[in-house]
Every structure is written in C-alpha cells, then in structure tokens.
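Note to self: user wants both folds in one dump. Writing first protein now.
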Amino acid sequence: MRTTFSGLNTVFSGLQAHQLGLDTVGQNLSNDSTEGYSRQSVNLVATAPLTQNTLYGTGYVGSGVTAASITRARDIFADKNYWKENATNSYYTQCQNNYTVVENVFNDSEVNSTDVGLKSSINSFWSAWQKLGTAASTPANRISVRDTAVTMADKIKTMASDMQSQISTNYGQLQSDVNSVNTITSQIAALNKNIVQLEANGGSANDLRDQRDELVDNLSKYLKVNVSEKSNGAYTISCDGSNMVDEGSSTDLALQAENNSDYGITDYTLTFKDTGAIFNPSDGEIKGIQDNVATDKSYMDKLADYSAFFLTTFNAQHKEGYGIDGANNGNGTTDLNFFGETQNSYQWADEKSSASEGYESACVEKTDSSGTTEKLRGINIINELTVNSKITGDGGTDYIAAKGANTTTDANGNTYYTDANGNQVTYANRIPAKNGTAGIADGSNAVLLSSLFSTSLSNAKITSTIKTAAGMLDSSGNATKFSSTENLSLNDYYDNSMAKLGDDSSNVDDYVTKTTSTLTQLDNARQSVSGVNWNEELTNMIKFQQGYSACTRVLTTMDQMLDKLINSTGEVGR
C-alpha cells in the first residue's frame, strides 16, 4: 500500500538519477583528452512498483528510477585487432629505423662532390691497378696502388666499426624494452588485483579498466599479445604461448650476455628471468630488434666477404707475379701477399659437405709459416685486411707484383718459368709476361689482378691454384663450392649486395606505410565506440538537465499539495 509521501520518494529518485547522468556527462567531457579514457554512460532502470488497490483489483504504481550500472563503451574485438596490428607495425618500424642506419653506413652517394662510399674506394683501387698494368715501373702508379689499398682497407674497417656500434645500439634498445615490458606486466598484474577486489560486490571499475587496457596497448608495441578475461574480471595475457600475466602475478624477462668474438660484440639472449628458458617472440618491437641484430651481422659478413676476396683470391694471384726490387737474380720478389703478412697464407673455407647444404658465413683459414691454421670469421677477417708491411715500408712499392714470369721454351715446346731460386721449372700457375720476357715495365699480373674486379671468377683466366685459394674447388679439385663473392666479380657481388639492401629497405618502408594505415583505421574504429563525442554529450546534458528541472517542478507541486493537506485540513468553519 502506497504511503502519502511515496510520491516524494519517486520524484527524489528522479532527481538523483538525472544528477548522476549530469555527473557522468561532466566526467566524459572532463576526460575528453585523457589518453586511454573510455566514454561512460549511466544505465537507468525503473525501481520495483508499489501495489495499489483499484476498482478492478490490485494495480501497480511506479516507485521511481535507479542507476543499474555505470558502464564504459569498449569493443574488445576492435581492441584485439588493434593489439595485433600494433605489434606488426612496431616490428616494421623498428626494422625501418635500422635499415636507415645501414644505408647510411653503406652510402655511396657524393658528399661535397666527393665520393665517400666503399664503392668509390674499391673503384679507386681498381683504377690504380689498371694504370699499373699499362706502366708497371712508374713510381706514381705503384704509390697509388699502395695508398688506395690502405684507404679501402681503412674504409671497410670503419664501416665494420659502425655496424658494431649499431648492434650495440640495438641491444641497448632491447634492454630498455625488456625493462619496459617488465614494468608494464607488473602494473597490469597489480590492476588485476584491484579490479577483482572492487568488482567483487558488483559494478565495474571503469577507470582502472581503462588504465589496464592502455597498458595492454603499450605492451602490444613490444610483443604479440593474446588477452583473455576471466569471470572475475582479471586479464590473462600470453605471448607466443607463454603467460606474461595471470591475474595478480607477472613473468619478468631478462637478457643473458654472451661474448661473440666473431663479430667483436656482446650478444644478448632473451630469457624468462625465473626459469632461464629462452623466449623467442614472433612479432613486435623486441622481435624487430632481434632481427635487426641479425641483419647488421649479415652486412658485417658482406664486409668480411669483400675482405676475404682480397685475402684469398687477390692475394693468391698477387703471389703469381714479381716485383721490381731486383731480388731473385733480378727477376724480383715473388710469392708475396699484398694483404696480410708474408708468412701467412689464406684460403676461403666452407665447412659444409655439399653445396646443397648451403654455405657458412665468411670464414678464412689462415695458415702461418709453422703450419698452424686458424679460422677467421667476421670482424677477424676484416681486421686481417691490412696491406703487407713489406709493401708499406720504405721502398716497399717495388715489391708490388705487377710483372709476369719470364718464360723459356725448350726444344720439345715445353714452357718453363723462373722460380725464386732462379731455376727454370714447369710451373703452370705463373702468369706469363708479355712476349715471354718480363721487364720492369711489364704489367701482365697487374692486368689480370685488375680483371678480377669486373670479371666473374668462373670466366677469369685464373688457374686451379687461385681457384683453390678462392674456395671454388674442394680438396679433390672438384668445382662444387663458391668463393667469398659467390664466384662473381667483386664489383658484381658488391652491386648485388647493395641492390638487395635497397630492395629490403624499400619493402620495409612499404610495410610500414601499410601497417600504419591499417593501425590508424583500427584506432579510429575504437575511438568511434569509446571516444567522447561532444555533440552526443551535450545532447545528454540537455536531456538530463531538462529531466532534473521537470522533477523539481513535480516536487514543488507535490510539496504544495502536502502543505495544503497538512496545514489547511480541519480549518473549515472556523
């Protein structure tokens, strides 16, 4: 049975409901620029009716309104798509940044009208040998060969140092990202606890949920995340099958250091801190950094390939020629390395059993005079690329082996060459001098050495000795292997490497453009649901304000009625 004052309670509930609606509008407008904020709305429902006896039985009269809940506008499917695409976009963006640095290191463009890249240094060295082939006794030509060789070797070493610095920069970024991931996952775990606690009695901890989703947005930049929500409101977040957050607990990542002498750096392996197990993410910025390190190493390997060409193929051919220093009964010094010290020999090594198994990264076997063999890889090959101290010393340019070998033909038509002791022996690996006799101006070997820059090793006029040093022949003399330049000329191998660098960088740029566009569309879709719309909020504001005003008018009217009832009843006839 309704009471006399039940109408006041009904109107009062309306005042409270509309005031709550206005408060929510104010909350939305106040947080219009708040990062990660989701628009909130009040869900109003009618309260249980009161019974009222009528002529035809029991009737039900409304008792007012109440707020069932305050919910936030959020599309979980849009969120999941955004998190997935955010990881992919961050991956390619990280790769793009790295390729920009690599392209700068291998930049062959002009600076102040001067070529400064490695290509220019190689071309200068090549041109110096071409000039030496036409005038082998000219001191200026010999000095040019020596000086351009020093410049080229220094350029390769400088570029290798730049790549080492870039790898260190990547690992520094990786450490920062790991710290950020650990901080984010611990904060999400803490929010899980608070949300579960606050929502235990019903309701929704909207602001805390917004903070948690914003943290997941940030986490998805670093890793590919998979988010599921439990019945109690807690998030479980896994990355590539491994739980990073499970309700109130989180898993920390760590980096395990390991010295890498092949590249002269310290490598870092991503692991789970508690177990030490290796973690290999499949997407996100961290995956991009790991791939960047691999890319940087591959281009250090390219520099090692160029260096290995000079230590193996070029050196072996240089040994076939003679200097003009007057040694060897006037024939000149022979069997001399141009790069690396005299007592060492170098051969390209391939440790795979067959070509079908692929080929290892740059590896050169260095054998000293005692027969001890050392395997050089990566930065160690590059550091080995130093012009022979005998050539860089005083009068050392006379040792540059531009000449071919003197020849003599016997009565049977056999050709002989003069060895280091002045003896005539059958030695088919020597490059013969022009017309069979080498003078100080003879540049037969210089001509052949210069041809190696632009002629593929498969077509170059080199002997089996040179091919063996280049790694083109196995121990049985079978042509089943590749040299450090894949049997191409040095120039072709360099051009192919730079073309691949350009193509890879361009492809990454395209992926960044596409993923950025997709990410923007997904974010716009999310904002269309959860973002604050001023027109909508102002409309709600007018609706709730008008409703509040109407309730106050009803309250005033009812107050007047009750006043009349209480204060005026019983005064009739006085």
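First done. Writing the second protein, which came from a different request thread.
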Amino acid sequence: MFKMNAIARAVVRALVGCTLGVALAAQAAPVNVKIIGFNDYHGNLESPGSFGVNTLVPTASRPAVGGAEVLAAYVAAMKAGNPNTVVVGAGDFIGATPLISALFFDEPSVETLNKIGVDFVAVGNHEFDKGKDELRRLQNGGCKIPADPNSCKGFGSAATGSFDGARFKWLAANVIETATGRPLLPAYGVKSFGGVRVAFIGMTLRGTPGIVTPTGVAGLSFADEAATVNALVPRLRAQGIESIVVLVHQGGFQNTLAGVAGQPITSDINGCTGDIKNVDGSDSDIRAIVRQLDNAVDLVISGHTHAAYNCSANTVDVRGTTLANAVTTARPTGMPNRAGRLIPVTSASAFGRVLTEVDLVLETSTRDIVSVSPVNRLVDRSNPAINAAIAADPSVRNVVAAYKTAVSPLANAVIATITTGMSDAANASGEMEAGDLIADAQLQATQPAAVGGAQIAFMNAGGVRNPGFVKPAAAVYPYDLTYGDAFTTQPFGNSLVTMTLTAQQIKNVLEQQFSGCRGQTANRIMQISNGFSYRWNPAGSCDTRITDVSFTPTDLVSNPALPTVTGPTDNLVIAGVVQNPTRTYRVTVNNFMATGGDGFTTLVAGLNQLGGAQDIDALVAYLAAFKAPAAAYDPASAFLAKPRIRN
C-alpha cells in the first residue's frame, strides 16, 4: 500500500483546506436578484397617453408612455442586466380594459402579458368582473363557451382560432372557494436563484365583494390580507424558504394633505410624501396591512389606487442598516411592520406607465433577503434604445396591430358630435360633466314604463373612467365622438337596474356618499340625471349633510336634445327634513351599485328591481340624437339644468 510521507500529507491537507475554503466562499457568495413589478395594467395594449416623473413636469413636456411592445422591450432590457430576474404584478391586469382587449374577452391582455414575460400576478378586484370560471379560463386557456366569434382570435397564441391561456400564474392567497374551503388559485409562487428560493404571496383586498358585482364573487370569500400572509409564513419556512415578497392589490396615495401644515404640494413616482394615505387623509389600507405583517416579509409590491410611490428612500438593509442611496427623492425608508421594522412598499401607477425595478441581495447561508433597492422607472416611448429593440423584434407590436385592425370597424364608428370635452374631473361640489351625460343616458334608457319607468338616475363617480369624453390630442372641436371614445369612459359592461326607493331612502343614499356615514369608507359623490338636484353642507355630519333635494319630472325619451318638463317640482328635502318619507320614486343605477357597490348599501333594499340594457348601449343610444346632421352635444346647454349639485 502506498503511504504518504509527512511532507506529502501536509501538502494534501493544504490543498484540501484551500479547496474547501474556496467551496465555502462560493457557497457564501450573495446572489443578486432583480424583481420587475407593475400593477393595474387593465389591458392597455396601446399607450394610455403621456405621464411625468413628478407633478412639476409641465403637461406639454411629459413623454408618451406605455404600450405592450414598449413594456416588453423595457422588461427585456432589465432582464439583460441580470439573468436572475422575475416579473410580477399586483393585480387588475384584466377588467375595465380598453375596447381593443375588452371586445375579445381580455384574451389580448393575457397574450401580451405572456410575451412581456410575466411570472406571477396577484389577483385584483377586476379579475373577478366576469366571475371565477372566466378567470380560470383565462388562466388555463380555451375558447369562450358558448362559442363567440370574438374569442380565440389567437393573434398572440400558438395558432389562429386558439387561446393558450396565461403562462404566468395568478395568485389568490386570500380568495377562498367556499365549496372547498381552499384558495381559488395558488396562494404563492416560488422561484429559485443560486439555490435560494424566494416566495411571492399574491392576493387582493378583502373588500373586493363590495366593489365587484355579486355574480363576480359568487361562491368566494375574501380573508384578511395580513392574517393570510402571516399564516403562510410557517408553511414557507418549513420548506426552507426565508425570502418572502408580498404582491397585494391594495394601496394608498401620496400627498393627500397637500399644502396643509407645510406638506409639499408635489409628488414623484419615487416619492412617498404624506406617508401614503387614503384620499381623505386618513390612514391608508396598505399601511394598515403592512403594520400587521410578520417580520419575515421583506418587500411589498402594491396596487389598486393607480398611484405611484416608492416608500424606500434608501436601499434598505433588512438587518437594520442603511446602505448607499438608491434614488434621490427624500421619503421614509419604508412602512413599519408588526415588529416595527421598516420595509419597502412600492406601487407603479397604472396602465403600464411605470415599472418598478427592485434589486435584491440574497444571502445563501441564511437564505434571507439582506438588502432591497427599489426604483420606479417611467416607461418612456421615446427611448431610442427601446425603439431599436422593438424594431429588431416586433412580435409584440404585431400582436397589438392585429387586434387593433380587428377592433377598428367598431371602435372608429362615429356615434355623436360634441362641442367640447367633458372630463371625469369633479368640480368643488362633486359634479362631473362626463357624469352628467352618463346619468342622463341611463335615465333615458329606462324611462319608458316597459323598461323600468325611471324618474331619476344615479351614476357612481368611480365608474366614469379616464379621461371622460375628451378628444385625442390631435383632434379639434367640434369632435366626432367614436364608439371607442365612449367605451373608454364606460368599459365595464354593467347592466342597468331600476328600483323603487322612498324619499327617505333617497336621502339616506345621498348621505351615504360621504366617508364614515352609513358604512361608507370614502367620499363618493354620485352623478345625477337631469331634473334632479340637491344641496349639501361640507360642514355637516352623517345624516345632516344633505340640506335640500328637489325633483322635476323631465322627459328625455321624446327628444333628448330638447327635454321637456312633464310635472311640477317635488321638494323631497327642505332644510334637512324629508317632507314625505314614504313617497316612492323609480331610480336607475348600474348593477354594481344596485348590489351595494362602492359602499351604497342603501340601494340593496330597493324594491321591484328590473334589469335593463348595458351601460354602453344606453350611452350610445342617447348620443344618437346628437349625431350629424343633428346639432352637436353641448355640455353648457341650458336644457341640461346645471349645476345639479351644490354645496
């Protein structure tokens, strides 16, 4: 047998020790990971317009942003800088989409997201607009049943006449199917980087049933967000997972108290001014969630409010040390969790305008995330490198172009002429010009006795979508309004519901527009139809704000362009007092509101409910009276009886 002498043994020991040291050093080397996040895509295959990095950028100087092909190119460029990359979303990737996606049942949204390279997406409330079965179809693929010619176009799938479904995974940790007691979809997804596994927990706000039609959430329950995450932590740790990221469809707003007590009056996509509040300045839901999270969570990517923020002024070392500055905008370094530790919380606006680029460092020995550096980046369509990349690989652009061609005959059909734009911005009393138009259309559609006998119509302000009835930048007024323009403002496909309410119930639902009154969680001023008006007192308290309400019967059916008064004015409320509490009226709302959506629970008790046309169909029918050669619709016309709301 060969025996080593002392010198040989010493050499071997040295070599073994050196090799082992190198191996241990390699094992201990940290792993750099990139997370690319965004939220509230809402099927914006095309650019949603211009956007600025902050509110100081003049409107004329804000670049055009977004679009599926530009998003894909930005994601590809970010991935090129780090092979350890994962692309995630915080919900509402489908639903409330432009016609180019909605007409085709949001299959174009899924197909473009596949090509962008998304890995995991939290469900949002709009994922449930068409119910759990339709969400599962979009996840798993297959055509609409019963068959529909607008399903399975296949422009972004494997073959014409097919729909592949999502290659990414929707995550629904807190969405429980009541029949089974289990999550509707996977609670989390896991990716491994350099031997370290990272978990992504995805979920939507627990209040989803209050903002989605009952048919959309039938058979489902929605659990507390923080409690859901905390219950999953031990399960993940049992699998050896210590790195945990939360994707949650809930958020807040920067700068809600602008100008008050020295609060800055600007906001920035990388800012966190005002500590992320609700619109009324109260503590935001996202802060409340983070405040209850287990210390194992190291990053929260949020959404829902369509706001941009980056609550992480510096690169945050999760062991408690602050590293080098990642961005320059001053803001808090995170939100406090249950243990009081600050963790980064981000949101990337909406419609593909912004991407959140997060650089993580993973420690292989502990399997922990040890540093987090998020930056929100504008998805600028003028970027030369991005445009060169799209020219080199136009595959996503080609998919969008194919759907644009398929939708154009309907989208470009002129339905009316308007004299000027009508935005979804409310005045000081809460009235929107676009909202007035929609409420009138819904009243006209349900006024005939056979379809409801409506006298009044209410429209939820949140259902009047951007930018209202406003012409494209290159057009001039008078403007020929197209079906596509109208659909952009009314994208939900809600149906109309006419019900009987008493005068007292009308007073109650008007009071319910204000935060803290009758269960309402935010100020939500409804839009009202011609002939109805009221006055409210901002200094009042719950059930004392509505001071005067009047109703003048007005016929919108015979001639919408020249409505006629058909009866005397009825004063429902005078000086805060309901004059005849039991007197009844027929009131039209959309099915979302009729079932208590946006907190209008008073409407649930409405009697003799009768379903009607879809909201977009009612709008198109009303506007037909203002199509050439007839006179254009003028929002300043005296016959519209404005203002309808006063404070």
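Dump finished. Worth passing along: Residues 211 and 598 are 6 Å apart (CA to CA).
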